[in-house]
Amino acid sequence: MKNKFIAGNWKMNKTIADTKQFINELIPLVAGANNRVALCVPFTDLATAVELAKGTNIAIGAQNVHWAESGAFTGEISVNMLKELGVEYVVIGHSERRQYFGETDATVLKRTLAALAGGLKPIVCVGETLAEREGGLMEEVLKRQTLEGLAQVSAEQMADVVIAYEPVWAIGTGKTATNQEANDAIGYIRGILAQKYGDEVAQNVFIQYGGSMNEKNAADLLSMPQIDGGLIGGASLVPEKFQAIVKAK
Ligand code: PGA
Q: How far apart, in whole angstroms, are the C-alpha atoms of residue 232 and residue 40?
């Protein structure tokens, strides 16, 4: 069985001072954990986070990246800039970026390809809204987001891709998908990957669940066979809560 991969997504939270305090508290709490651990932090916290996490089992990720190498893209950050800092992961296509910042499947693909080409591991987010789920469109949406967001990604590159299934209606709402709903949706996504890349690639890819996952429901969600980990928002902001998820059994 695969270990699980637990990644925190701090969103737009925590200053450099907060980051120092958090990571120093977290290091002993998660030392020796069986599961993979990452923290995806704001751009301004990355250098501090990488420095503090060096030599520990905590990997550091960013929350977005631009696809161009450099140029006239005011406010954007390139893959090389993140690599130079020692960043390992990058969240791409989070539903908040899709909702508030015009992210589309096409831009998800561009970012993903650039990240992979430059040696960053993308955590590609997919997930349906409540209206889409209630309208019977969940599978169609997940299929489109998965296939278009990974369109030119090769089978070899899939070894570095993580997918996060995050139903939009469960993010930050306290409303978690049931274990079965999350498991089924992730199983569906894995089936799509199996059709495109074959069974081996599909079985090996880590597919996380995200959306109000916390220290109370993590063990049950993570016990489901399709769920390879979690992308944790709110509960990743408190070291004790996050470590409880990392160590959930
Ligand atoms: P949440 O966020 O855990 O606060 O629901 C998850 C996410 O948006 O990645």
A: 10
